[in-house]
Amino acid sequence: MAELTWLRSRHMELGTEVEALQATAAWMDDATMLELWDRITGHVTFFVNDLVPYISVEDEILYPALTVAAETATPIDVLRAHHAEIDRLAADLDDARRALPLGEDDAWRQVRKALYGLYAVARLHFTVEDEIVLPLLEADLDTRDAEELEDAVRAVVHNTQSTLDFQEA
User: Longest Cα pair distance anywhere in the chain, in angstroms?
Assistant: First the structure.
């Protein structure tokens, strides 16, 4: 049985950022508009530059291996539905963030709704992957295949991050 230690470690890193969403939503009432804007901008940047590219890599590399291990595509359909919801909610958060300085009545409620929604869906997604997907893959892959899978994910994540860094420059 192989261990997908890099993927588990990456999920922990991403999970720390996901946990911060809930903290921001709880803190909003004590924040100034500028403080909230800065923190929400950080969350949007995390989704655009880190989480959304990472879940795209899962679709490209991890899920084909899961189809073989699980002998069905059903779990992948559920995981891809999570990805679509994360994309939608990240866009909702950015829209709500942009409405804050305009003083739109509903903007604070929309920000809080998007934060809690993103937190719930992303946390569920990583829990399913950590407790179901990765154990399935670890049981199916030998050590060499696991290393190759993690190397492929790592390479695509690195290339995606390098492209984003170049675009921001």
Answer: 56
- Mean pLDDT, consecutive 10-residue stretches, the chain (169 aa), reads 91 95 94 91 93 91 88 82 96 91 81 96 95 92 92 83 52
In order, the DSSP letters of the chain are: ----HHHHHHHHHHHHHHHHHHHHHHHGGG--HHHHHHHHHHHHHHIIIIIHHHHHHIIIIIHHHHHHHHTSSHHHHHHHHHHHHHHHHHHHHHHHHHHGGGT-TTHHHHHHHHHHHHHHHHHHHHHHIIIIIHHHHHHH--HHHHHHHHHHHHHHHHHHHHHHHHHH-
Angle, helices 74-99 vs 33-46, to 10°: value is 150
Average pLDDT, the chain: 89
Q: Provide the whole-model pTM.
A: 0.86
104 phi-psi bin (left φ>0, alpha ψ -120 to 50, beta other): beta
